[in-house]
Design brief:
The chain is an alpha/beta fold. Helices cover 34% and strands 30% of the residues. Helix 2 packs parallel to helix 3.
């Protein structure tokens, strides 16, 4: 797990580092923590998918944590952000930037436990990948980017937000999608169709409307089950 601490106070940075190191001893994670003294220093080192989690001090000289987080969202939208602040005054900005959590300084082990438990789960989910063969090449697709998987004639289509990957693999649809169905985000809504609940906008009488506008048929037998699964998913992940 790769973690960035962006904090201009050496005292606060060292406290957070020690608490994180102590907490993560209980997990089988390869933990790497990098510290940055300013938003500028952090952004100069930032690359897509370099960090799983960023602890960002909101109030820093020159470039604020909010401004640095905005830039982070552009470069790596999958990185989780936890804001550090001595005052709750900036919470509205944090919500606008989809901050994962707010921690009031000085940080305590109790607040680390509350924040990190879900962060670890989200990091594990973001790393799950589906391996499929396209021609003679194996492609590894993040679960978090798959909107749905559907059969199409003799092929299997894997749909993202805009892109579609078509595979004519000899693997059956059931076997290809079985890893997805072990993940609570995915649901089989009919024969030859598995959807990712996180990308469902809403359910209509006979179809699931996805965030990219695609309308996917739900079998009559599955409709009550799909509706219940979506409500539970949205309630637990709001």
């Amino acid at each position: 797990m790769n973690v960035a601490i962006v904090e201009d106070s050496q005292k606060d940075s060292q406290l957070l580092l020690s608490l994180l190191t102590e907490y993560m001893k209980h997990y089988d994670f390869n933990l790497k923590i990098e510290g940055f003294k300013s938003g500028e220093e952090f952004l100069s080192a930032l690359e897509p998918e370099r960090f799983d989690l960023c602890f960002m001090d909101i109030y820093m000289e020159r470039l604020s944590g909010v401004e640095a987080a905005e830039r982070l969202r552009e470069i790596d939208p999958q990185c989780l952000v936890i804001f550090l602040t001595s005052s709750p005054d900036y919470m509205a900005e944090g919500f606008r930037l989809r901050a994962w959590r707010y921690l009031l300084k000085p940080v305590t082990m109790e607040s680390i436990r509350e924040a990190m438990a879900e962060c670890i789960e989200q990091t594990e989910l973001s790393r799950r990948r589906l391996n499929v063969n396209v021609g003679r090449k194996e492609v590894s697709l993040p679960f978090s980017k798959i909107y749905y998987v559907a059969t199409a004639n003799r092929n299997i289509e894997i749909h993202g937000r805009e892109a579609v990957l078509i595979t004519n693999t000899h693997v059956t649809f059931e076997r290809l999608t079985s890893p997805l169905l072990e993940d609570y985000r995915f649901f089989c809504v009919g024969k030859g169709l598995v959807i990712n609940l996180q990308f469902v906008k809403h359910i209509e009488e006979s179809c699931a409307v996805m965030l990219n506008g695609d309308r996917l048929p739900i079998s009559r037998r599955k409709r009550p089950e799909v509706s219940a699964a979506l409500v539970q998913f949205q309630f637990e992940n709001e």
